[in-house]
């Protein structure tokens, strides 16, 4: 059935995060799912699998906590496969945009060797023609995961649903991503600092900056913590300082991971006309 583009939602970034926080307080299992995603992400090559599998559970639990109704009766395995498929589709779209952008930038840059001012234009084209389109598409397709897990959409339909529902609400999606991303990065820095890992690039030893081999290792670990944030976690390649750090960051980072997944579920329902009506009394 055709889906009309969603109208701009009356609930902005603050409203989405507030509803997500309500879901977290209503069902602690959502937080546990977030902690599991972060903890499993420290295991090489596991995070890419753990995110859709366990993150989908957080989405489903959020939907049930706020709407009071179960998600689709489609099997969890099929929903997980759809979510993974949607992730692959989104990645293919993003890579296609990047390749097209590089082709344009490369063409302009080649001409720039003959007419140097065009080199500056090539940089501008690179920003406008690659970064902004990829960011916009990523925001429009950010809701593919809840589409697969809440409504049981197939991979391609999940991508289509996300594109439709995020239409007119891109600013809200961006705002939620920025808030959860910044909070996640701050949490990573604070936990790293609490366990004796200095902030990247600022190793203080005796009141002066020092970059010994030992301190460079600490910088590397701290940079790893920044790279591995609760939102969009990636495989960790650096050595983890201690089990205490693992536990501390998994709990704190898991909070913002859970908030991010819950926000996806809220936005998916909120950006649908029927979803707005259903959630109005929550």
TrEMBL record:
<feature type="transmembrane region" description="Helical">
    <location>
        <begin position="118"/>
        <end position="139"/>
    </location>
</feature>
<dbReference type="InterPro" id="IPR057169">
    <property type="entry name" value="DUF7847"/>
</dbReference>
<feature type="transmembrane region" description="Helical">
    <location>
        <begin position="83"/>
        <end position="112"/>
    </location>
</feature>
<feature type="transmembrane region" description="Helical">
    <location>
        <begin position="30"/>
        <end position="47"/>
    </location>
</feature>
<keyword id="KW-0812">Transmembrane</keyword>
<feature type="transmembrane region" description="Helical">
    <location>
        <begin position="170"/>
        <end position="195"/>
    </location>
</feature>
<feature type="domain" description="DUF7847">
    <location>
        <begin position="84"/>
        <end position="269"/>
    </location>
</feature>
<protein>
    <recommendedName>
        <fullName>DUF7847 domain-containing protein</fullName>
    </recommendedName>
</protein>
<keyword id="KW-0472">Membrane</keyword>
<keyword id="KW-1133">Transmembrane helix</keyword>
<dbReference type="Pfam" id="PF25231">
    <property type="entry name" value="DUF7847"/>
</dbReference>
